[in-house]
Amino acid sequence: MSDTGTIPIRLSFGGGLEAYFSNKRTQTVQVPSKDESGAPSNAAFLIRYLHENIMQYHGEAKNNPFVTPEGDVRPGILVLIGDPDEIDGELADWELEGEGAYVLKPNTLVSFISSLHGG
Amino acid sequence: MPASPCALCKTSRALIVRPKNHQKLCKPCFLHVFETEIHHTITTNALFHRGERIAIGASGGKDSTVLASVLKTLNERYDYGLELILLSIDEGITGYRDDSLETVKRNAVQYGMELKIVGYGELYGWTMDQVVSQVGKKGNCTYCGVFRRQALDRGAAMLGVRHVVTGHNADDMAETVLMNLLRGDLPRLARTTSIVTKTPNAAAKMDTKDGRTDDGIEIIPDVISHTDIIRSKPLKYAYEKEIVLYAHHKSLDYFSTECIYSPEAFRGSARALIKNLERIRPSAILDVVRSGEDMAKLVPAEFGGAQTEEEGEGGCGAAQGRTGGGSMGSLEAKLREDEGAKMREVEALETEITLPIRTKGKPKSKPKKGAPTQAKKYQKQVMGQCERCGYLSSQSVCKACTLLEGLNKARPKADIGIVVGLDT
């Protein structure tokens, strides 16, 4: 992987978040393989990258349904990670994968599910 | 990070961290533990009895979809002997409820359950789209909440069912506890934290079992029976996070979109607070629920501990009534005549959850002028029936009929027969 390269990341949105991502429940995006400081891109960087480059939201930062003004995933949104090296193909709570520190791999599946809407 | 093994089976990879105790579980163990805990809630509270027909308040959202799925599973696994029916309310919100009802229709097929849809249009002569075009987006949640509670009871009565279960989860309960604390409404807090609530029948009960005669013929309930509905919340202790994960890992088909009309600002803030607390200390949600239950024990039964309510639950955002707190209970109306009324009215305006302002203009609703400022006095609820529709009410006219009166006055040619249910 070159320093300036990108890696494909599979995304899945649920619970209404897809409305801010082209209304697509699943999509694959090319994400820089290194973050601003040159470190391998991790989940925290992915969230920042999605917020700044992919998400379609034009309201106030304090009402952003995906991230808080501090740039963290909004409480109430579940983040699940499907590590391509795990043979079971299942999604795990990102708390089990180091949360924001999880280093992205090509074809990692990251799923964001909002639990904030009615039920 | 190296994969952690499941804390229970020690073999499979853990996929879930349980919020209440940080336990790491694999998928099969999580699904089983989740279901078993709901079973435990059902049995320890003796929520159901064999042969009972249960209507599941189904919005197509995650909570009611998980509730329907889990109840179906448990009914088969533990042989509860229940007949489960899906009951959906069509508020008449184009682009929101019509879409979610499609989900419920699929669920009915997937779970092999009968589905009954009751619409605001048929019940009240007003869809929410029409209400909003009349009253605007601000405050429309009041109408939706008040109408929904009655609609669920009426729908259950139409089905000949006396027991409605709703998908309220632990996060919803914690929100409601906080909201009622912030309003200083202990009687309401006591009522809404209860796992079972009843709208007691003001008249004699029909002498039947499960809404059928001895010959097994289903009785079409009369106007009385929609005031005799039991409500319960089997998911009361289930974390929203786990409900979402359960739906994900079971690949359940649910609908999730924000209601297109205005959200409740006060509930939204309570919700954000709960979610922020959960991030710091996940057990906080259940702790708030338990605290609410303990506080409820301190409230004398006649003020709310009796587990009865009149059109008290409601609120915005989901077909089955997001949580108690959307509309103030009947106590609110009584309180308006009390000394503390003025202060409470101000609160009510801020939270947009009581009757619209114009109904407060009625002479009988006005607070006593010059009354000495004292500590709030809670009056005992005296339940009767609405003189127009027969629904349980502490006033001569129930809240839904009062709201309808305001709507119909403003409508150029008022429809006749708006209070359907008189003749059902």
Automatic annotation (TrEMBL), chain A:
<comment type="similarity">
    <text>Belongs to the URM1 family.</text>
</comment>
<dbReference type="GO" id="GO:0005829">
    <property type="term" value="C:cytosol"/>
</dbReference>
<dbReference type="Pfam" id="PF09138">
    <property type="entry name" value="Urm1"/>
</dbReference>
<dbReference type="InterPro" id="IPR015221">
    <property type="entry name" value="Urm1"/>
</dbReference>
<dbReference type="GO" id="GO:0002098">
    <property type="term" value="P:tRNA wobble uridine modification"/>
</dbReference>
<keyword id="KW-0819">tRNA processing</keyword>
<feature type="cross-link" description="Glycyl lysine isopeptide (Gly-Lys) (interchain with K-? in acceptor proteins)">
    <location>
        <position position="119"/>
    </location>
</feature>
<keyword id="KW-0833">Ubl conjugation pathway</keyword>
<dbReference type="InterPro" id="IPR016155">
    <property type="entry name" value="Mopterin_synth/thiamin_S_b"/>
</dbReference>
<dbReference type="GO" id="GO:0034227">
    <property type="term" value="P:tRNA thio-modification"/>
</dbReference>
<protein>
    <recommendedName>
        <fullName>Ubiquitin-related modifier 1</fullName>
    </recommendedName>
</protein>
<keyword id="KW-0963">Cytoplasm</keyword>
<dbReference type="InterPro" id="IPR012675">
    <property type="entry name" value="Beta-grasp_dom_sf"/>
</dbReference>
<keyword id="KW-1017">Isopeptide bond</keyword>
<dbReference type="GO" id="GO:0032447">
    <property type="term" value="P:protein urmylation"/>
</dbReference>
<comment type="function">
    <text>Acts as a sulfur carrier required for 2-thiolation of mcm(5)S(2)U at tRNA wobble positions of cytosolic tRNA(Lys), tRNA(Glu) and tRNA(Gln). Serves as sulfur donor in tRNA 2-thiolation reaction by being thiocarboxylated (-COSH) at its C-terminus by the MOCS3 homolog UBA4. The sulfur is then transferred to tRNA to form 2-thiolation of mcm(5)S(2)U. Prior mcm(5) tRNA modification by the elongator complex is required for 2-thiolation. Also acts as a ubiquitin-like protein (UBL) that is covalently conjugated via an isopeptide bond to lysine residues of target proteins such as AHP1.</text>
</comment>
<comment type="pathway">
    <text>tRNA modification; 5-methoxycarbonylmethyl-2-thiouridine-tRNA biosynthesis.</text>
</comment>
<feature type="modified residue" description="1-thioglycine">
    <location>
        <position position="119"/>
    </location>
</feature>
From TrEMBL, chain B:
<dbReference type="InterPro" id="IPR056369">
    <property type="entry name" value="CTU1-like_ATP-bd"/>
</dbReference>
<protein>
    <recommendedName>
        <fullName>Cytoplasmic tRNA 2-thiolation protein 1</fullName>
        <ecNumber>2.7.7.-</ecNumber>
    </recommendedName>
</protein>
<dbReference type="GO" id="GO:0005739">
    <property type="term" value="C:mitochondrion"/>
</dbReference>
<dbReference type="GO" id="GO:0032447">
    <property type="term" value="P:protein urmylation"/>
</dbReference>
<keyword id="KW-0808">Transferase</keyword>
<comment type="similarity">
    <text>Belongs to the TtcA family. CTU1/NCS6/ATPBD3 subfamily.</text>
</comment>
<dbReference type="InterPro" id="IPR011063">
    <property type="entry name" value="TilS/TtcA_N"/>
</dbReference>
<dbReference type="InterPro" id="IPR020554">
    <property type="entry name" value="UPF0021_CS"/>
</dbReference>
<feature type="domain" description="tRNA(Ile)-lysidine/2-thiocytidine synthase N-terminal">
    <location>
        <begin position="54"/>
        <end position="258"/>
    </location>
</feature>
<keyword id="KW-0820">tRNA-binding</keyword>
<dbReference type="GO" id="GO:0002144">
    <property type="term" value="C:cytosolic tRNA wobble base thiouridylase complex"/>
</dbReference>
<dbReference type="InterPro" id="IPR000541">
    <property type="entry name" value="Ncs6/Tuc1/Ctu1"/>
</dbReference>
<dbReference type="InterPro" id="IPR014729">
    <property type="entry name" value="Rossmann-like_a/b/a_fold"/>
</dbReference>
<feature type="region of interest" description="Disordered">
    <location>
        <begin position="306"/>
        <end position="330"/>
    </location>
</feature>
<dbReference type="GO" id="GO:0016779">
    <property type="term" value="F:nucleotidyltransferase activity"/>
</dbReference>
<comment type="pathway">
    <text>tRNA modification; 5-methoxycarbonylmethyl-2-thiouridine-tRNA biosynthesis.</text>
</comment>
<feature type="compositionally biased region" description="Gly residues">
    <location>
        <begin position="314"/>
        <end position="328"/>
    </location>
</feature>
<dbReference type="Pfam" id="PF16503">
    <property type="entry name" value="zn-ribbon_14"/>
</dbReference>
<keyword id="KW-0963">Cytoplasm</keyword>
<keyword id="KW-0694">RNA-binding</keyword>
<dbReference type="GO" id="GO:0000049">
    <property type="term" value="F:tRNA binding"/>
</dbReference>
<feature type="domain" description="Cytoplasmic tRNA 2-thiolation protein 1 C-terminal">
    <location>
        <begin position="384"/>
        <end position="413"/>
    </location>
</feature>
